[in-house]
Amino acid sequence: MFHRHVTLASFALLMKSQFLKGADSAFTPGEDEVTLLRAGRGINCAPGHDFNKEECIAAAQSVGGELREGRFLVGDWGNTPPGCFIEASDKAIHYGRNGGGVNNGYFQSVCFAADDEVTVLDAYKGSQCSAGHAGFSEEECVAAAMSIGGVLENDVLKVGEWSHAPYGCSIQESDKTIHFGTSIEGINDGDFQPVCVAGTDQGIKLRATKGSSCDSGYDFNEADCVEAALSIGGKLRNGKTIVGAWGDAPNACFLEKSDKAIHYNNNQGGINNGGYHPICKVGTIKATLLPAYQGNACDPGNEIALEDCVSSAAAIGGKLRGGVFRIGEYENGPPGCFVENSDKAIHFGTSKGYNNGYFQPVCVAGPIEASVLQDLKGTKCTPGFDFTELECIEAATAVGGILRKNKFLVGDWANTPNACFIEARDKAIHYGRNQGAVNNGYFHPICKPEKIEAVLKSRYIRDDCKKGHDFSEQECLAAGKSVGGSLSWNKQFRRGYWSNAPFGCFVLDGRVMYGYYHRWYVNYNSYVYRRSQSVCKVEAEEATLLPASKGAKCSPGREFSKEECIAAAQSVGGKLRNDKFLVGDWAYAPYGCFTETRDGAIHFGTNVGSVNNGNYQPVCIHG
Fold first, then answer.
1. Which of 38, 201, 358, 510 has an alpha carbon 20 to 30 Å from 476's alpha carbon atom?
2. How remote is the C-alpha of 57 from its chain's centroid?
């Protein structure tokens, strides 16, 4: 990021009220009080920045204007800008009295200099002016952008309702063409540099975690570091800012976690070891989209505020359904900012709701973590653990992916994984939009790491997983590795129909394997079976299913919580009806976790005073 003045008007507006009070007080413009706009169709002074007729001659002469044959030309032309201007061909000074005049491109408006200082941000995905710094109107955009190197294409300001460009004034990075976006929902695709009103930037303190740092363009320089850090609780150790080039601290401005001492790191490649708080400029919050599954919500400290929700969610694919930001007390949605999994509609929950699995929390992003799956036929991310298209490059780069010929490859291939992946032969980063695609075995899916809690069962005795505690084929490799297993000597994940090995995920002599279910005879006493160890999901409290009878309920202290209900009910045969966890305050069903007798559908009742009508089976802690 860099700053540059458009022009300054330190006392220009004061002088406007004092023009022509007498011969000795005639207007004499000072340096940087007048600006000359470029000759372009429709370009004229911003509202409030035009000179009156009495001021026009002196102002225009200060920027090179001349009186044609000693005459000051005044008229009601329709093809010239209103107010003071000069003709581009010979610099002749004019004054247009037609307020509706439109510059045909042959005249240059003479204007009062803008009061605001201009800054241009870096071009990256989601980049936009922060709140309070996006004050340039369409009329002001040209002068502001030209002051920092912008140019007009065919002398015309490009205006449009683009979805791929930021709202407001911006410059296309490739050719410096000036644009003005009119879509509030426009999201920078990385090709535009927002043109913003400069000012004193507010500082924000990020969490002291490994790898945390400011986003590109939001770090303070050394000169501004002290003021920003002091404003949010930083301290000068022995009255000094500590400056260095450390490899284990974040780049630029930061506070030491232990005593809040202000530091400045000149090492651009410094990586936070977790002991420092980066101090960053307030801007669009870098957000991440969590998977849609039951109970998922932002970790404490990573919640996004109501006023930041729309911009943060929109930057990672969220949308306003019907142009409306939906705010409410959602019992079946997570608290705070989230999007609906089906159409990415942006919501904000004001109560402590419980995510039913159909919503994706929008949270403050920490250092990106990604895992690489094996390049095997059919491998893909577990639903909800795939990266969005906007996140893919960063995620894949973090695990060794590269851009082939500097291009991000996006397509609808049928033989690749869906979502983010890299090609096995050259690590090229791709994004597949075909939801039904099937990996042909030549690609590595890039996924969000799953929190896997696995247990390794005993060997030499039959010790299979309990019902509902076995891992799927997709989960097996990660689960097996979490308990010390690895791939076979040839780096293959072995799977098959074996009559002398356990069903499901298991480890044999340190190798992770998966046995498909079959109806053949199984030799439980075979040498292979006795050496195999099943890999199972960690068991919670053992559950029991009470009979369906009127008034039946769990004994006090034997109820499962809402968070535990699904796993507990599934372990005794419960099922999610249409993949939904049913939560309600029914008066005729038991309080707590239960299943419906007719189809085993899992429910959770929140009505403490309810009475079971006999159609439901309470799921209780065994004992």
1. 358
2. 52
